Structure formats: C-alpha cells, structure tokens
Automatic annotation (TrEMBL):
<dbReference type="InterPro" id="IPR058240">
    <property type="entry name" value="rSAM_sf"/>
</dbReference>
<dbReference type="InterPro" id="IPR023404">
    <property type="entry name" value="rSAM_horseshoe"/>
</dbReference>
<feature type="domain" description="Radical SAM core">
    <location>
        <begin position="45"/>
        <end position="283"/>
    </location>
</feature>
<dbReference type="Pfam" id="PF06969">
    <property type="entry name" value="HemN_C"/>
</dbReference>
<dbReference type="InterPro" id="IPR006638">
    <property type="entry name" value="Elp3/MiaA/NifB-like_rSAM"/>
</dbReference>
<dbReference type="InterPro" id="IPR010723">
    <property type="entry name" value="HemN_C"/>
</dbReference>
<comment type="similarity">
    <text>Belongs to the anaerobic coproporphyrinogen-III oxidase family. HemW subfamily.</text>
</comment>
<dbReference type="InterPro" id="IPR034505">
    <property type="entry name" value="Coproporphyrinogen-III_oxidase"/>
</dbReference>
<dbReference type="Pfam" id="PF04055">
    <property type="entry name" value="Radical_SAM"/>
</dbReference>
<protein>
    <recommendedName>
        <fullName>Radical S-adenosyl methionine domain-containing protein 1, mitochondrial</fullName>
    </recommendedName>
</protein>
<dbReference type="InterPro" id="IPR004559">
    <property type="entry name" value="HemW-like"/>
</dbReference>
<dbReference type="InterPro" id="IPR007197">
    <property type="entry name" value="rSAM"/>
</dbReference>
<comment type="function">
    <text>May be a heme chaperone, appears to bind heme. Homologous bacterial proteins do not have oxygen-independent coproporphyrinogen-III oxidase activity. Binds 1 [4Fe-4S] cluster. The cluster is coordinated with 3 cysteines and an exchangeable S-adenosyl-L-methionine.</text>
</comment>
Length: 476
C-alpha cells in the first residue's frame, strides 16, 4: 500500500490542497466512519462490485520513530503463539464473514499490509485467505501481496507463504545505511536486509518490491545514491520511493520540523526525487506512478485499484473500504475495532453504500488519481462522463503548464501536442499527464488547480452521468 506517513514526494514539497482524497486506502487517519453523499435517482445502476481486498495486520516488534499507523507493538520477546496474534485474526475473520458481498466477484488482488504482516504465522495467514475464499472467492491467478520486513522471516516461513498463494512481496528495506536505520528506530539492520533479499530470491518469488524512504534525518545525497544503486543491484522487479513525512504524535514529530536540519531541505528532497527517477530509469525501471517504479509487466495490480478509483474491500484495524460509493474507515484502536466487529455481526453497522456518488467528488478523485500515473488522465472518457465544458476548462487552466513542460497533452496515439495547437485541436487532445520528474514534483499544486476548476463547476452531474467513469474503469 502507499503509506500515508510515507507519502510520495509531491505531498511533501507543496502545501496540500484543501480537499484531496488520499489514494492510500490501506487505512485512514481520519475518525469519521462515513463519507456523505448526494442523493440521486434510486434506480441508478450500482458501481461494479469490488474485486480487491486490503487486509490490515497491525503487528510490529516496536513502533518506528516516523510511524503513526494503527499498530500493535508486540515487543522483541513475542513468539508465533502470542495470543494477541490469534485473537486479532479471529476478529478479522469474523469481520470478513459478516461483510455483505456485492455480487459474487472473485477477488483479483489481496494485499496484506500493516504493521508488519510477516510477523504473523503462516497458519493464521492461511485462516484469513480461507475466510476470504469462502466469502468472496479468489481467482487462481490473483495477485496476493504481503509487506514483509527484514529480520521477521526466514526461508522456511517464506516457502510456507508461497504455498499458501503469496506471489508478491513488498520488502520494507527503507535504507541501506546502518546509521539511518538506527535513527529511524527500525528493528532491522543492513545484515538483515541482505539476508531478506537473498531469501526472497531463493524461494522463487519473482514479483517483489523494495521500499525506500528519502529525506531521512542526516541523509546525504551520497547515502541516497548508494541506497538506489544497491537496490538496482538487488534486481527487484518493483521499487517504491517514499518521502518522509513528519507526523504529530510521533517521535520524529517531537524532534524535528520539516525542511529544517537535520532533515533535508525541500530543494534537497526534490533532488533526491530527481536522482531516483534518473537512476531507476537508467536501470530500465518504468516510472509508472509518482512513487512507483517497475520492470515491464510488474506493476502492482492491487494499487491500480486505488489509482483507477475502483471499489475495494478493506478489513482490519483502521482500514478503509470503498464499496457501493461509500468510503468507510474502521476504528484505529484494538478494543474499538473488536466492538465494531461485534456490532457488524449484530447488524448495527453498514460498511457499504448503495451506489450513490456525488459527481464533484468523483471528478476530483478521477483527476487526482489519474494524474498520479504516467498514463495520465483520459480526457475522452472524462468528457463522456462529465461533459466537454469541464474538459475545455482544464485545458485552459493547464495551458501555461503545457508551455512550461510540467503538463503534457497527448493525442490518441500518445504523441505530444504543442501548446500552440491547443486552441484549435481540443478534440484531438485525448490524454493529459504530468511530466517526469518536474511535473510529478509539483503535482500537488497542479492537481489543486484542477480541483479549483471542478469545485467552481455549478452544473457538475451526479452519479447518473458519472457512472460510465466507474463502470468503464476510466478506460475507453
């Protein structure tokens, strides 16, 4: 998952717009359980049923200094038979069982996030997968991913996970320097990182990712370059690059202020981002999303669920689901979550909506999520769903940025269109994307411009006119 505390760099470099919806779905930091919606015609066709599920396994050995996630720190003396593990998984499976399925669509992706899911014994992971399979079904070719931390698994555990169906690993390396790992409060060192990489590769997991954090305290340009080059040498099929965010309530939040020493300046953070784009690009990694790089064919299918604004199930502590047009956040405290599960079983909670979606919300989601990716915004589909006036307004507001090279307009063959041609060829502009890396670096500001256009649009259609966007998954 794209962790909200380790957001892509563009969130760190510019002020956040007033109303962006974070694409990271794994869990939400907000307390409201319901996203309000506008009323629409009750005969409106429902959005497509979810085919992805996020599973939150909140266990960690200890809390890292930057972490504000909903976790349960077990301590270094915890063992696989720790009753806290089994008790939580028992409630998790109860939640899955009590959830009303939206049509019988087998899951195409399952993502175990946390926390440190690799602390959970394979027998308990098997229980979760079997509960999902019994409730929704899981396709034989489904992508089943797990976040795993160095030092929390060996070859035997990895092989057992593979037997269960695990076929994608997201390895939380974060850095290749001992001093940086210690400064972050990570429970592993470089020795454990190298061993984890060896184990993943030796157990036949071809689809695996290395996660890195930029802009750490005392992190130098040489350190960041070393981490990137050692990552390339390790030959993962995917790399995620996150920029450190300083969150209130964390140890880093008490020690540091963004942009001030020993944290890198905004200029240094931008240079880190450009360096990642250059080094990973030179190694034939496709920069397919603001914080994500991959070898050809190894995009994270589960994360595309979020970037395409498709419905998904979310289960577990603090997780968010998007079902029937409703974004629903579960409690972040363990006892509150257990009570929530009991209420769900008793019919006192409804975690899914009835297909009612507000047009402006949908339009903003589509723009923000699409512009995160190298594919960009499909203006033809957007026009079919929301009308040509808003597309023309977007082209007008972005014209200066097309001229400066931050925004790229493309025709149906994905060839660039010059700014001088925009006035006479609006219908030929089929795609709009941000340039890499300069446009991605300023994407928060650029997306905020689109939000301003949409927010001022008084005739924004409701779900009857927006349903094509969801049903076509934004692909014409």
């Amino acid at each position: 998952m794209v962790k909200s505390t380790l957001t892509p760099m563009f969130w760190a470099l510019t002020p956040k717009p007033k109303s962006p919806k974070q694409p990271s779905p794994a869990f939400a930091n907000s307390t409201p359980l319901v996203r309000h919606k506008a009323s629409v015609n009750p005969t409106t066709p429902p959005p497509p049923p979810p085919s992805s599920a996020y599973i939150h396994l909140p266990f960690c050995r200890k809390r890292c200094h930057y972490c504000d996630f909903p976790i349960l720190a077990l301590g270094s003396a915890s063992t696989p038979d720790d009753p806290r593990l089994s008790n939580y998984v028992h409630h998790l499976c109860r939640e899955i069982t009590a959830t009303k399925p939206h049509a019988h669509t087998p899951l195409q992706t399952v993502y175990f996030g946390g926390g440190t899911p690799s602390l959970v014994p394979p027998t308990l992971v098997s229980s979760v997968l079997e509960t999902l399979r019994a409730k929704f079904g899981i396709r034989e070719d489904a992508e089943i991913s797990m976040e795993m931390d160095p030092g929390t698994f060996d070859a035997e555990k990895m092989r057992e996970m593979v037997v269960l169906g695990l076929n994608r690993v997201s390895l939380g390396v974060q850095a290749f320097q001992e001093e940086l790992l210690r400064a972050c409060g990570r429970a592993h060192g470089v020795k454990e990182v190298l061993e984890a990489i060896r184990v993943v590769k030796s157990c036949g997991v071809r689809n695996w990712s290395i996660d890195l954090i930029a802009s750490l305290p005392h992190q130098s340009s040489d350190m960041w370059e070393e981490s990137l080059r050692l990552t390339v040498d390790s030959q993962p099929t995917h790399v995620s690059v996150y920029d450190l965010q300083i969150e209130q309530g964390t140890k880093f939040g008490r020690l540091y202020s963004p942009g001030e020493f020993p944290l890198p300046s905004e200029t240094q953070s931008a240079e880190f981002y450009k360096m990642a784009s250059r080094i990973l690009g030179d190694a034939n990694y496709n920069h397919y999303e603001i914080s994500s790089y991959c070898k050809s064919g190894y995009e994270c299918k589960h994360n595309f669920t979020y970037w395409k604004n498709k419905p998904f199930y979310g289960f577990g502590l603090g997780s968010t689901s998007f079902v029937g047009g409703l974004r629903f956040s579960r409690p972040r405290k363990v006892n509150d979550y257990f009570n929530f599960v009991q209420n769900l079983e008793n019919g006192l909670v409804n975690s899914s909506g009835d297909g009612q979606i507000h047009g402006k919300d949908t339009a903003m989601d589509v723009v923000m999520l699409s512009l995160r990716t190298s594919q960009g915004l499909d203006l033809k589909c957007f026009q079919e769903s929301f009308g040509s006036p808003i597309v023309l307004s977007l082209l007008e507001v972005y014209k200066p940025y097309v001229e400066s090279g931050l925004v790229v307009c493309l025709d149906e063959h994905r060839k660039s269109i010059r700014v001088d041609d925009l006035n006479n060829t609006e219908r030929k502009v089929v795609y709009m994307r941000l340039s890499d890396p300069e446009g991605f670096l300023l994407s928060n500001e650029l997306i905020a411009l689109a939000f301003g256009v949409i927010d001022s649009w008084n005739d924004c259609p409701s779900y009857q006119e927006a349903e094509a966007t969801l049903k076509q998954e934004f692909i014409c």
